[in-house]
Specification:
The complex is a heterodimer of chains A (115) and B (116). Chain A is built from no helices and 12 strands. Chain A has 115 residues and is mainly β. The chains are: A mainly beta (115), B mainly beta (116).
Chain lengths: 115, 116
């Protein structure tokens, strides 16, 4: 069965410090991996995705994520956090070997950047 | 704005009533997804359409739920005989996907349903 785990419900980081939001996944085949951000009263916004190729992918707003197949992880990172990065972050996975087309989302991590 | 839109944004209904939500995807997108999100959880897949064909439904989707996408454009999600457990945010997303996909989904703002 496909699943995504975001082990931290809440992450706090000081403005200007690097941030990491963790995500691990479980799929039977090779994964497609995504990160989305949700601001209050707004829909989910796409940040970045890993399909194939370079394990380090860069996305919107200075975010990047590293795909680690051996650790089945896809952690979201940013070198220098901004207060405006405070939001709810969701990791999602889709199994490319699965004939279905479902995306499985994690439970979300609330990021607070402290001024 | 050419993003995904949903209507209504909020719906309060009494238990046992039927409700219908509408989603207008990005115009060139061939795939449309419906999700349900409750507090503290990520979006939970309900169903998706490829053009007008409903290709997959979650096993969690009760018989009280039905979705349509009659002309491969907008979609409706109907919940019959609503229950308090149906209270949630209902999200619509669309994407353009070829065999070389997948492409990212673009989400609407959601419809918040409250069943009293």
């Amino acid at each position: 069965a496909q699943s995504v785990a975001q082990p931290e419900d809440q992450v706090n980081v000081a403005e200007g410090n690097p941030l990491t939001v963790k995500c691990t996944y479980s799929v039977s085949g090779n994964p497609y991996l995504f990160w989305y951000v949700q601001y209050p009263n707004r829909g989910l916004q796409f940040l970045l995705k890993y399909i194939t190729g370079d394990n380090l992918v860069k996305g919107s707003y200075g975010f990047e994520a590293e795909f680690n197949k051996s650790q089945t992880s896809f952690h979201l990172k940013k070198p220098s956090a901004l207060v405006s990065d405070s939001a709810l972050y969701f990791c999602a996975v889709r199994d490319i070997s699965n004939t279905g087309n479902q995306f499985y989302f994690g439970t979300g991590t609330s990021l607070t950047v402290i001024p | 704005d050419t993003g995904v839109s949903q209507d209504p944004r909020h719906k309060i209904t009494k238990r046992g009533q039927n409700v219908t939500f509408r989603c207008d995807p990005i115009s060139e997108h061939n795939r449309l997804y419906w999700y349900r999100q409750t507090l503290g959880q990520g979006p939970e897949f309900l169903t998706y359409f490829q053009n007008e064909a409903q290709l997959e439904k979650s096993r969690l989707l009760s018989d009280r739920f039905s979705a349509e996408r009659p002309k491969g454009s907008f979609s409706t999600l109907e919940i019959q005989r609503t229950e308090q457990g149906d209270s949630a945010m209902y999200l619509c997303a669309s994407s353009f996907e070829l065999t070389s996909g997948p492409y990212e989904q673009y989400f609407g703002p959601g419809t918040r349903l409250t069943v009293t």
